[in-house]
Amino acid sequence: MEHFYKGKKVLIIGGTGTIGKSILKHILLDNPEVVRILSRDEHKQFELQQEMYEYTNIRYLIGDVRDYDRVHRAMQDIDYVFHVAAMKHVPSCEYNPFEAIQTNIIGTQNVIQASINAGVKKTVFTSTDKAIAPTNTYGASKLMAERLISAAQSQTGPKQTIFAAVRFGNVMGSRGSVIPLFKWQIKEKRQITVTDLNMSRFMMTLPQATNLTVQAMKLAIGGEIFVLKMPVICLNDLADVVTNLAAEQLHIDVASIAIKEIGLRPGEKMYEELMTDEEAVHALELPDMFVIPNAFLKKPLTYENAKPASNEGYSSHNVATISREELRELLLQNNLMVL
């Protein structure tokens, strides 16, 4: 599937975010005819325009995923859609739950309907580990959006649009994530705040998240959920490695950086899940991901090098965490510790 996007028209909804920008840069390597970026933040659009000024095949569209008519207009003549727009910060969604519903659920339904009506070939939705057994508004809204995507595949009528979802955990270094927060806290306050040092999380680098999301677009057959494999990191290890690396850069004693536990925020869990035991029974396993078939469709899914998954879920609680040495190398290789 080399040069999958060559000569094609692509829409990235939420294209000025961390994942959206990375997907943009990835598919531009295939020389697509046009890539449209739809987002509601004109300042981030301006910044992206300055960064990507040499490309003549990018179009910048201001609009909100909540506005069906705008989404539909943006999809005219589009081949492939990446839907990466979301409200994603757990506390914000907890405090403003209906805003999360409008963006994450109603917005996703707008994308589905517009994709069908515009005759899009494939639409991929990015979900989260927090959608599994959700304990917060963000996770519940993403779970509902996943269900909409799965159900959409059996409701396309005469249209041939293929829908799929991708689940992954925390993207290391993405805007608003824990590593940039730790770096800022160390530099400005000489302390970091952690919810619970025993917490574990799925984390992956931005290139990993991007490559596997783009791969899911190529592989999608209809209505499935791609569960991307990724490292598990203990928060205690992350706090230790980040403080040590920061101390080296700032030429200060690591003991001068305080680590303060503040307890779980509303809706947070001690560990996250990417696939339930029930889903694992029907799932297929590929070298870098699991594939959960659509429960509404009875046709078998076939992928090269696929095998039945083991009959157990995929949780940060039952997967071994990477070592501190591996974590340190991961941060340095991906330039995540530049202060």
Describe the model.
With 339 residues, the protein is an alpha/beta fold. 38% of the residues lie in helices and 21% in strands. It has a ten-stranded mixed sheet with strand order 3-2-1-4-5-6-10-15-14-16, with helices on both faces. A hairpin with a 2-residue loop joins strand 14 and strand 15. Helix 1 packs across helix 8, helix 3 packs across helix 5 and helix 7 packs across helix 9. The two termini are 39 Å apart. The relative contact order is 0.12.
- Relative strand content: 15-25%
Number of distinct beta strands: 17
Q: Count of helices?
A: 11
How far do the termini sit from each other? 39 Å
Given helix and strand content, the structural type is: alpha/beta
Major β-sheet, in short?
A: 10 strands, mixed
- Strand/helix succession: EHEHEHEHHEHEEHEEHEEHEEHEEEEH
Low-confidence regions: none
Rounded to an integer in angstroms, the radius of gyration calculated over CA atoms is: 20 Å
Measured as a percent range, the helix fraction is 25-40%
Q: Mean pLDDT, rounded to whole units?
A: 93
Question: Order of strands side by side in the largest beta sheet?
Answer: 3-2-1-4-5-6-10-15-14-16
Specify the overall morphology.
Answer: globular
